[in-house]
Design a protein that fits this description.
By secondary structure, the chain is α/β, with parallel strands linked by helices. It has 3 domains: 216 residues, HUPs (Rossmann fold, 3-Layer(aba) Sandwich); 89 residues, Tyrosyl-Transfer RNA Synthetase (Orthogonal Bundle); 69 residues, Structural Genomics Hypothetical 15.5 Kd Protein In mrcA-pckA Intergenic Region, Chain A (Roll). The strands form 3 sheets. It has a 6-stranded mixed beta sheet with strand order 1-6-5-2-3-4, with helices on both faces. A 5-stranded mixed beta sheet has the order 7-13-12-9-10. The longest helix has 17 residues.
């Protein structure tokens, strides 16, 4: 048990509050903790950046602790200001409902929601939507404006003369109150969520007169650039509901410098195996060989060994032999003429106008094997066309 606990408290872990020693002592005492991880449904997909937290949470579930996956359906309507250079646009109830449709299925690839010690799903609208103005004022009275304004992102906005919405001060209070409402013993989240989680720790002391542990995880970043590897604005997402083939291909396309961070934080590949791959690459080995093993490990974790092997063989067939896949998805559209950028968005090959333009201008888009570099070029769908984005995404389109 001691070795299991040490593994849980080391892999992907950044910091533990109040300390690793105190948490380890409680875990080794045999006490079962109520532990939660929260996520706001700001989009329909969970991605490999979220996987880091889900895998840590699963390790605690395997140790027999009570696990809660909290969906921030209320806090999503406020908008988390964490790491944002401008206020996030609040979501409507309809947008949140749409985004939530596949959350449980995606998380179910990692956490166990059936059988013994099944994880629970809760929604913070259950208690936050019932709070009166008196309740909110009482909650806010425990903190000062100075505490809130010290956050780096707010300081950056002040220096840049960018506005800070008053509602953004309420977000950490609402997230913090989640811990009180669920009477949890511990919260897990990325290191960028430290401020919000520590607010919850303070509130648990105030309202429940007990300790709440906070475990922060390392962020999945490219060590070469220091930027998050899963970045919606740059189109670099590997989503949990992507197909096995897409996940395999996207991992193979990751910058060589970032692949080992992904292996450590977002897969269950043994750490000694990762170190062995690092040593081989450092000694002159081909990074592609390491990527093949890491991509296989990731797909196997989510879909099983059979689909992982099939995805690997498909990748090798298409990219090593420069073949097109024998089978590819087909989509029917109602409109015949499209600007190329709009077409990519319509068929789901780009998530935004900015991403579509970037892909096209970088030469990643082909129509019937012809490279296209003008986002505004009008594509006429005559009969059936073959649309390709990058090396791995193919789609047949007809009207």
């Amino acid at each position: 048990m001691s070795e299991l606990v040490k593994k849980v408290l080391s892999r992907s872990v950044d910091k533990i509050y109040p300390s690793q020693e105190e948490l380890e002592k409680v875990l080794l005492s045999g006490k079962k903790l109520r532990i939660y991880l929260g996520a706001d449904p700001t989009g329909p997909h969970l991605h490999f950046g979220h996987l880091t937290n889900f895998l840590v949470l699963r390790r605690f579930q395997e140790l027999g602790h009570e696990i809660i996956f909290l969906i921030g359906d209320f806090t999503a309507m406020i908008g988390d200001p964490t790491d944002k250079a401008a206020a996030r646009q609040p979501l409507t109830a309809e947008q949140i409902k749409e985004n939530l449709k596949t959350f449980k299925k995606q998380v179910g690839k990692i956490l166990k929601f059936t059988g013994s010690n099944a994880a629970k799903i809760k929604f913070n609208s259950k208690w936050l939507a019932k709070m009166s103005l008196k309740d909110v004022i009482g909650l806010a009275s425990h903190f000062t404006i100075q505490q809130m304004i010290q956050r780096n992102m707010f300081q950056e906005r002040l220096k840049a003369d960018k506005p800070i919405g008053f509602h953004e001060f309420l977000y950490p209070l609402m997230q913090g109150y989640d811990s009180v409402a669920m009477d949890v013993d511990m919260e897990i989240g990325g290191s960028d969520q430290t401020f919000n989680m520590l607010v919850g720790r303070d509130l648990v002391k105030i309202y429940k007169n007990k300790e709440k542990f906070v475990l922060t995880t390392k962020l999945l970043e490219n060590p070469k650039t220091g930027r998050k590897l899963m970045n919606k604005s740059e189109g670099g997402l590997i989503n949990l509901d992507d197909s096995p083939e897409d996940i395999f291909g996207k991992i193979m396309a990751i910058d060589d410098a970032a692949i080992f961070a992904l292996a450590e934080y977002s897969t269950e590949m043994p750490l000694d195996k990762i170190e062995d791959l690092k040593t081989k690459v450092a000694g002159g080995g081909n990074p592609r060989d390491a990527k093949l093993e890491i991509a296989f490990s990731a797909v196997e974790m989510l879909f099983g060994a059979v689909k992982a092997e099939k995805s690997k063989q498909r990748f090798l067939s298409i990219f090593s032999k420069h073949e097109k896949p024998s089978e590819m998805p087909v989509k029917k559209l109602e409109i015949r003429n499209w600007k190329l950028a709009d077409l990519l968005i319509e068929v789901g090959m780009a998530s935004s106008k900015g991403e579509a333009r970037r892909l096209i201008e970088q030469g990643a888009a082909r129509v019937n094997d012809l490279k296209k570099t003008d986002p505004n070029e009008v594509i006429e769908i005559k009969g059936e066309i073959l649309l390709q984005v990058g090396k791995r995404n193919f789609l047949k389109i007809y009207v």
